[in-house]
Design a protein that fits this description.
alpha/beta; 8-stranded mixed sheet; single chain; 318 residues; Rossmann fold; 37% helix; globular
Length: 318
């Protein structure tokens, strides 16, 4: 089970022994990094977040891993959180191609792997899970284990065929709207938008943490994705349907998913798990929304217990 102190953790404060600094990417891009070292580490975790995320949202989960003896590192993706923006609008999530993020992850992994003791574990939520699995499938990183949390292996359909959605996004890019937002933002981005909450978590307090950080650190706020992001997301997720590549991934994988996820396609996750030779899945139902580690206590404790049991089996302390 999880450490009993996690319920008393202050999710709205950076722990005193956490280091926040800048990781310079190979091309000179300034990435905001969090590093939480342990005095006697049993290993190291590199945590990658989802689209429009920032590492403050997962401080509680970082604490859960750290309390179990893990070093924890997290870096805001290029164009998100405190790592600058890739387009002209500060509140539109834009990227030229998902391969840029894969390259960033590979370079970060190499630096982190050299500087942190093993076993080395990658944890990826949503878009972060997509990018971790893509780097694994392309045989560009080789951690000791990985945990994918509601990975974005395909966007939820929303009633439109995938080829149609990608075609619409491609047309919008061709007519000069590639850096423009693909959907409308919340009218008041500094306050919780209740209809959005059930898509993410059943826990209203954890949901509101995000908006606390918007007020405390306005630079972390990001809104809708650009049309280019949407078009490239479909192209990148299609790359992850290469059966041969998935079948060659030899890293132990735990996939946490919910069958009722309305943001990512669960059927695609199921198919991938069946192809990945060393994958196992912990499946939740309607009690759990997309942000599994930000769910109500009973759900997240079950999820964390699955993570720690998995790591104790496949990545014992070296």
């Amino acid at each position: 089970m999880t450490d009993p102190t996690h319920s008393r953790f202050d999710r709205r404060s950076i722990p005193k022994d956490v280091t926040e600094d800048i990781w310079p990417g190979p091309d000179g891009w300034a990435f905001r990094r969090l590093d939480w070292r342990h005095d006697a580490p049993r290993g190291s975790v590199l945590f990658t977040t989802g689209r429009a995320d920032f590492y403050e949202k997962y401080l509680e989960s970082f604490h859960d891993f750290h309390a179990r003896g893990w070093n924890v590192t997290s870096v805001d993706w290029r164009g998100q959180g405190g790592s600058g923006r890739c387009g002209p609008h500060p509140h539109v999530g834009h990227i030229d191609d998902f391969s840029t993020w894969v390259d960033d992850l590979v370079a970060l992994f190499q630096d982190w792997h050299a500087d942190h003791p093993g076993p080395h574990v990658l944890v990826g939520h949503s878009m972060g899970g997509h990018l971790v699995l893509r780097a694994l499938a392309e045989q560009r990183i080789h951690p000791d284990a990985a945990i994918l949390i509601a990975p974005m292996l395909a966007p939820a359909g929303g009633g439109m065929p995938e080829w149609t959605a990608q075609l619409v996004a491609r047309i919008m890019c061709l007519v000069g709207r590639s850096e423009r937002r693909a959907w409308k933002p919340n009218a008041n981005p500094l306050e919780p938008y209740v209809p959005r909450q059930p898509l993410l978590t059943h826990d209203a307090e954890r949901y509101s943490d995000e908006f606390f950080w918007f007020r405390e650190r306005p630079f972390v706020r990001l809104g809708p994705a650009s049309w280019r992001w949407v078009e490239r997301a479909y192209a990148s997720t299609r790359r992850l349907r290469n059966r041969q590549r998935l079948m060659r991934v030899d890293v132990p994988l735990l996939v946490l998913a919910t069958a009722t996820d309305e943001l990512v396609d669960h059927a695609t996750i199921e198919r991938a798990v069946h192809l990945l030779p060393r994958a196992e899945m912990k499946l939740f139902g309607p009690e759990c929304a997309h942000e599994i580690l930000r769910e109500v206590d009973v759900v997240r404790e079950e999820a964390l217990a699955s993570c720690f049991a998995f790591l104790d089996r496949v990545a014992p302390q070296q």
